[in-house]
Design brief:
By secondary structure, the protein is α+β, with helices and mostly antiparallel strands. It has 5 helices and 8 strands; from the N terminus they run H-E-E-H-H-E-E-H-E-E-H-E-E. The strands form 2 sheets. A 4-stranded antiparallel sheet has the order 2-1-3-8. Strands 4-7-5-6 form a 4-stranded antiparallel sheet, covered by helices on one side.
């Protein structure tokens, strides 16, 4: 099974993946599903994040950083986790299902980058395009590229990324950084 290139996906493919995500959430709520057809490319390995938005506010976001299963399965599992297992929110209710909008981010493979200091971070990270993973020991955190919309400065982006991962070290050289890009699809 080969890995999926997110940039090979069409808008139609993205809409189909969103249907799969919505179908998985509906079935978890014991509602009738949409039963969308499984696309031929759907068993290619892919990594996704499924973000649920309600009135443009975050309502859940769970994903995979590495491609280890078919993209359709990855999207379905992450949709269910986003709706019912995101520890920041209570499980999604039947009433909320019609109010949430689904946003999918299909990730490129992670690319490790060496970061020596903050200036190096600024040089190597492209705002609004790069998603970033930081790891220090067993602690790890990521922000999707869309987070740049709320945190457009490198300093605030990095501050909140480290805070999210509960990483207290002040030396960026001690941390491991990865970047990735996403192909994003939004429900209308």
């Amino acid at each position: 099974m080969c890995n999926l290139d997110p940039y090979d996906l069409t808008e139609r493919d993205g809409k189909l993946l969103i249907l799969h995500a919505r179908d998985a959430i509906a079935k978890e709520l014991n509602l009738p599903g949409l039963n969308p057809n499984f696309p031929k490319w759907g068993d290619q390995k892919g990594a996704s994040f499924v973000t649920l938005l309600m009135d443009r506010s975050l309502r859940g976001c769970i994903g995979s950083l590495a491609a280890y299963r078919g993209i359709v399965i990855d999207v379905r599992e992450n949709a269910v986790s986003s709706a019912f297992k995101d520890p920041r929110f209570p499980p999604l209710s039947v009433e909320e299902l019609g109010l949430v909008k689904i946003e999918l981010s299909i990730l490129t493979p992670l690319k490790r980058i060496e970061v020596k200091d903050f200036d190096d971070f600024v040089k190597k990270i492209e705002p609004f395009k790069d998603g970033v993973v930081v790891q220090h020991g067993l602690k790890k955190a990521t922000f999707l590229p869309s987070v740049w919309e709320q945190l457009p400065q490198h300093s605030t982006f990095l501050h909140y990324l480290l805070k999210k991962g509960n990483i207290n070290s002040s030396s960026l050289e001690e941390m491991i950084f990865f970047t990735y890009r996403v192909r994003k699809f939004r429900e209308e």
